[in-house]
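Below is a concrete protein record.
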Amino acid sequence: MTQLRVKQLTKHLADRYEPHLDLSDIKPSDPQRMDKVLSRCLAAHAIFMRTDCSPEEAARSVWDGSDDNGIDAVFADHSDDRLIIVQAKFIKAGTGEPDADEVGTFADGVRDIIEENTENFAARLHSKLVDAANVILTPGCTIEIVLVSTGKSELARHATVKLDRILRDLNGAPDQEPLAAKQVLGLEEVYSSFLSSNISGRITVDATITDWARIAHPYAAYFGVIDGYQLKTWWLGHGKRLVAKNIRHSLGDTDVNAGIASTATFEPENFWYFNNGITLVADEAIRAPAAAASRAAGNFQFKGASIVNGAQTVSTLAGVPSDEELGKVRVPIRVILLKDAPLGFGTEVTRTNNLQNRVEGRDFAAQDPEQMRLQKEMSVEGVEYQISRSEDVVKSPHACELLEATTALACASGDAALAVQVKTGIGRFFNDLSRAPYKAVFNATLSGARTFNAILVLREIDKWIDKTRATIGKRSGFPWGVLIHGNRVLAAGVFQRIGGTVLNQPIEDFRAVLPSLDVAIRCQEVHIAMVEILEEDFPGKFLAILFKSPVSSKQVFDQSLAKLAATPVAV
């Protein structure tokens, strides 16, 4: 059976991807030509499985030829700020797995991509490395490391160790959100993906729905409860193709998604109460006859399936490591059948299910008496403070808004952890308005003048960062990385250097003294000190990861200020 499946895959892979691959480097006389072609087809299919790209786009992501540093395909998914890096191995026997040496080379290649080290890559691949770097430099980006084969779905111990080591390096300290995740796809997953979908993206999913009921008129539909583990298997098998009809795909590491993951992991029994559930549209449904008279549980197969609401729920549950806890997660589900519905009804279901505007935590902040007080105080001094979410946000010498104020006050707080928080997830400040981090920056002791004065300083810091970034290259390493990834920690250091009391004066008085604070000079001082500390104490570290860690960021912050303490600044 295993070899039969491999033979079937051989035809499907070649038919789908070979016409779109660059095979100019493989000679027709090469005795291993077919194996090499199929491995490239498999790499393209891994990209196809994990994204919503076309077969042609998947094939273009394949890295052909030698000197690829163990990398077979890279796809920069700019819509999700996600980088997918693939190693593929076509195994004729359908058994076994990639060996540890191959996986080790792959892990080294991943590291070189992250560090923008082009030395181990052929010159023809350098332009593709630039595209990958653009994703890596995006705050909040994620990296998906995929090892796909037509063998086992798990690696041997030595290979697992090599892959897990690069994951630990990328994800850094346990106090920060993980940047990278791995997927090991074997024959079973690859075969299933072909079995349940075709090139047009028509997907079939199996589901066991509990406490289910059926609506017959005017259009057939089912509703009930599905467990989180089933949704995880859907996502692993189909990826973004499962939500291709949705208005939004996975948004990655957002505050809402972090809440979904936290509930699934630590409070699975409460998930049904906290989550709105998912809506699935399908062309048709087939229900298994087993226990057909019972509504306690029904086994269904939905053909032409697509999630039109709840993409964040499904994609986030797929990232929860504990399958046991996911089995306890109960998710509300609706399945709307389109077979007998009028043309365009599915599109209307998608549109209307996504029309409700999501209430964000910051919307509640607009009702906080402290925010209203700050707004009035600034208004007295001729400054407009916008605290309600709006498309018409204005930032000017006489106007500011809530998120800008939050960023400035976090950096001016003297707490490096707050600067990290505002960089990695500003929305978390508004999760609970009665406690930190919100209360750490917005409280009864804060004045409107101090708030806007901090904003004026932050604007000067950001100007210096933008100007300096234009004069140094990415190849400078730490100097560039501090400006990109450590910009808020740098800002926190500058606020410490100029002193906190100067911010307490009336706004117009502060405007007059702002030039004398020499913000640009303070920026340069702190920048140099941070780079020196990183070179001395954190050589070889990924700054995109290091500056997500409150612990590591505080070390850099404290040690940089200590280095500068010999030259205090009087204000």
